[in-house]
Amino acid sequence: ATPKKAATKKAAPKKAAPKRVTKKKVSPKKSSKKSTVVKKEEFLPEQYVVYPSHGIGQILEIEKKEIAGQMLTMYVIEFEKEKMTLRVPIEKTKEIGVRKVSTKNQLKDIFEILTGKAKIRRTMWSRRAQEYEAKINSGDIKLLTEVVRDLFRSDSQPEQSYSERQLYEAARERLSREVAVIEKTDEQKAIEKMETIL
Questions:
Q1: Which residues, including other chains, have CB under 8 Å from residue 27's CB and lie 6 or more apart?
Q2: Of 26, 190, 2, 194, which is closest to residue 113 (Cα–Cα)?
Q3: Residue 61 CB partners (closer than 8 Å, separation 6+)
Q4: Considering Cα of 135, then 136, then 138, then 144, what sign does the dihedral take?
Q5: What's the pLDDT score for residue 82?
Q6: How far apart are CA 31 and CA 110, in angstroms?
Q7: Longest dimension (CA), the chain
Q8: Taking the mean position of all CA atoms in its chain, how far away is CA 189?
Q9: Cβ neighbours of residue 124 under 8 Å, at least 6 residues apart?
Q10: DSSP string of 29-96, one letter each residue
Q11: What was the pLDDT predicted at 1?
């Protein structure tokens, strides 16, 4: 059988053939028979992802479950801090806005945003608070960073109001968790680093 393989692909180096064999899996064949539109898993077990309204979570497993006569493939995402586990159908992840954790390159942009000047609009606090909350839950790390930058107060600046402090802490916690995952450090160190930059 081996010379035939070599004949079909003359240019292929010898090493390529054994690699192919190991990659052969039976499971994808099964799913492709059922339906041609098989959503490929974007994320893998143990990978960290960002869920817009909950922040950083870790994929525990990819689970297949029959719900109302339909086979669904779902990500089982654990949010350690909230002690919560969510099951998200694979085809819903884009719609919800689940994304991969930012890269180290994106982190440079984040730190640049933090060094920038706070942009505070002169609108009523209730309107601003809504905007901040929308940014925190957007799942967009840059918008989240803007909230941290805009609501940060150093010791020399006037004290934050209770609601400002709450929003700042929510944004800071979410951002620091992502920074901690990117830099493989802990949340406290990430907060210290961010506040040093600020």
A1: none
A2: 194
A3: 45, 76
A4: positive
A5: 87
A6: 40
A7: 79
A8: 20
A9: none
A10: HHHHHH-S-PPPPSS-TT-EEEETTTEEEEEEEEEEEEETTEEEEEEEEEETTTTEEEEEEGGGHHHH
A11: 52
Please name the amino acid found at residue 76.
Answer: V
Centre a 10 Å sphere on the Cβ of residue 55 and count the other Cβ atoms it contains.
Answer: 22
Angle between helices 104-115 and 162-183 (to 10 degrees): 150
CB–CB of 119/146 below 8 Å? yes
What are the backbone angles phi and psi of residue 169, rounded to the nearest 5°? -65, -40
Question: Residue type at 187?
Answer: E
93: amino acid identity, one letter: T
Per-residue confidence (pLDDT) for residue 191, from 0 to 100:
93
Q: How many CA within 13 A on the CB side of residue 11?
A: 0
DSSP-derived secondary structure for 118-162: P----S-HHHHHHHHHHHHTT--HHHHHHHHHHH---TTSPPPPH
Tokens of 191: 């907060």
153's tokens: 């107060």
b/e per residue 62-91 (b: at least 16 CB within 10 A): eeeeeeeeeeeebbbbebeeeeeebebbbe
Q: Which residues of the chain have pLDDT under 70?
A: 1-40
